[in-house]
Amino acid sequence: MGDRSIAVIVGSIREGSFSRQLAHALLDRAPAGLSGKLVQIDDLPLYNPDLDDGTPPAAWTRFRNDVRPVDGLLFVTPEYNRSVPGVLKNAIDVGSRPYGKSIFSGKPGAIVSCSPGALSAFGANHHLRQSLVFLDVPVMQQPEAYIGNIDKLLGKDGGISDAGTDKFLANFMKKFAEWIERHS
Question: Most buried by CB count within 10 Å: which residue of 9, 56, 121, 164?
């Protein structure tokens, strides 16, 4: 496998976010040859096509430039009202427009959803998959990653405190690296 890079897009902007802690844990478990960075989305103005006529907002340009060169996309998200958080949907809209200039098209992706509850943000995971299919992002099907009771799986340092979850996340990242290689 060659060296590959991923953009990690976290659907929560809350300080101390479980999703952000989980994203760091996933990056820590990436196999050799796979590197990534979290891409900021909390400063993106709401998508308005009028702003793409001319000079788009600087935050949009930064976001698009951060994601455009990567080999893969990892989305880590909570669930709000059985769907994706608005900040994540806005980032997807900003990155996929103007029409025909999507920064996501053809990039292999994966989704990890998490929740303190037992449903593991299942609804957000599947709503996000639906959008990514339209955007021509081949989303890894297996292993699926729905992490329930995340508040009990994170240690005080933000690391994973459960050996079974640790092993699952390491395997998930290994499979994601293989998925990226297969689709590159």
Answer: 121
State the Cα–Cα distance between residues 14 and 44, nearest whole angstrom: 15
The residue behind tokens 């890894």 is 140
Residue ranges with strand state E in 39-150: 72-77, 109-114, 145-147
Residue 129 maps to which CATH number? Answer: 3.40.50.360
Contact 87, 55 (CB under 8 A): no
Q: Which residues pair with 175 in a beta bridge?
A: none
Alpha-carbon gap, residue 29 to 24, rounded angstroms: 9
Distance separating alpha carbons of residues 155 and 151, to the nearest angstrom: 9
Domain extent, residue 73, equals 4-182
**CB of 31 closer than 8 Å to CB of 169:** no
| 102: Cβ contacts below 8 Å, ≥ 6 apart | 95, 96, 135, 136
- Whole-prediction pTM value? 0.96
Per-residue model confidence as pLDDT tens for the chain (184 residues):
579 999 999 999 998 899 999 999 999 999 999 999 999 999 999 999 999 998 999 999 999 999 999 999 999 999 999 999 999 999 999 999 999 999 999 999 999 999 998 888 999 999 999 999 999 999 999 999 999 999 999 988 888 999 999 999 999 999 999 999 999 8
